[in-house]
Amino acid sequence: MKKRTQPYISQSLEDTRKFAQEFLMGISRGEKGEGATVVALQGDLGAGKTAFVKEIAKILGIKETVSSPTFVLERIYEIPKSTREQFNFSRLVHIDAYRLKDETELAVLGWDRILVDSDTMVFLEWPEIVPQAVPVNAKNISFRIVREGVREIVAES
User: Fold this and answer.
1) How far is the CA of 123 from the CAs of 11, 39, 69, 129, 138, in angstroms?
2) Rounded Cα gap, residues 55 and 69, in angstroms
3) Rounded distance, CA 95 to CA 106, Å?
4) d(CA 104, CA 86)
5) CA-to-CA distance for 32 and 45, rounded, in angstroms?
6) Each residue of 48-104: pLDDT tens digit?
7) pTM for the complete prediction?
8) 3-state SS of 54-88?
9) Torsion angle of alpha carbons 132, 119, 47, 109, nearest 10°?
């Protein structure tokens, strides 16, 4: 059974960055299992999923502009050598399943190949559309709009 953390209330991008830093440090310190580290991100449109991934990318030292993969489905970013050792990952893969019919459509993105790479961290938005593809050991984070500018973030481990 997955354990839920207490809800984290974000009232700014800086708050989201603090949560992202704590989350990233937690999974970087943890024992790396076989295969990619998958983080399933749930929440309504505009709830903060992509904003969270952008903050993760900044912390990892990714200089490229990180944008939503809604229309391209997948974006892959190389993590700079300067931060690889600290965080234990070399690639960040950001996938948005919003426009997919089901998990079979992940095959064109090389999903099976992505999952076996233990140096890869995957952020999957809209995992509820592709539930059979989400590994049982995936980390789960849900985002909820509380009101304008305020989000509730809940992580499960």
Assistant:
1) 22, 5, 11, 14, 10
2) 15
3) 9
4) 34
5) 31
6) 999 999 999 999 999 988 888 776 788 999 999 988 888 889 999 999 999 899 899
7) 0.90
8) HHHHHHCCCCCCCCCCCCCCEEEEECCHHHHHHHC
9) -50
